[in-house]
Amino acid sequence: MAWLDGLSIGEPVGGENFNWDGFAFTVAARAKTERSVPWAHLALLVYGVLAERPPGGDAHTFMLSAMSLRAWMIKELGARDGDAVLDPDTIFRWFQDLAVFPLEEAARIVATPDWRTIPIETLLKLRYIKSALNTLSHISDSGVVQKHPELAEWLQLRSRLP
Question: 151 exposed, middle or buried (CB, 10 Å; 0-12, 13-18, 19+)?
């Protein structure tokens, strides 16, 4: 954190281009190796800023990396409501933001016999939903499904999503 003080995440460092994505990945790997919430917090900070940056980056990829790290930490260290890293509801809210279709509509869309007739934007949105569900499935024993019972049906649909 001290190194980041005075730096703008996503911007050059010392006048040189800097691989912030690689930095976040490396910090996340250290968080896992050391099972360290402070390192995870740092990685999540960087991923979060990168996800909010203007076009040129892939916000979904950065958020998927962040949420995957959260899920790993929750699985390893346990869920803690209200914790900046270990709260499963953070991942659930991310899923809710991505679930732009009601469950019934998503099920109807994927039941289409020829997916080539489905607009690519719709397929991409469904893929994002699936990636969030995959992440949630890793922490299903954390109580998140019991707290949000609507997830059970979504998780059943997951394997049929693109």
Answer: buried
The pLDDT assigned to 67 comes to 98
Give residue for tokens 């995959």. Answer: 134
Question: Is the pTM here over 0.90, yes or no?
Answer: yes
User: How is the chain split into domains, by residue range?
Assistant: 1-86, 100-162
- According to DSSP, the residues that pair with 13 across neighbouring strands are 16
151, 136 in Cβ contact below 8 A?
Answer: yes
Q: How many percent of the chain have pLDDT more than 70?
A: 98
Q: Put residue 103 in one of left, alpha, beta given phi > 0 → left and psi -120 to 50 → alpha.
A: alpha
| Joined tokens for residue 4 | 């980041």
